[in-house]
Amino acid sequence: FPTAVLMSWRRKERRSEGLCWFPRNDETILGQAIAYTAILKNGKSSFVPKHSEDYCFARAFGLIDKEKGKEMFPSLLGHETNRILEMEKQLERYEKNQAITSKDHRVVQAIVMRSIFDNREIVMENKECVKKAWPKFWDFVDYVKELSLN
Question: Taking the model in full, what pTM does it have?
Answer without folding.
Answer: 0.81
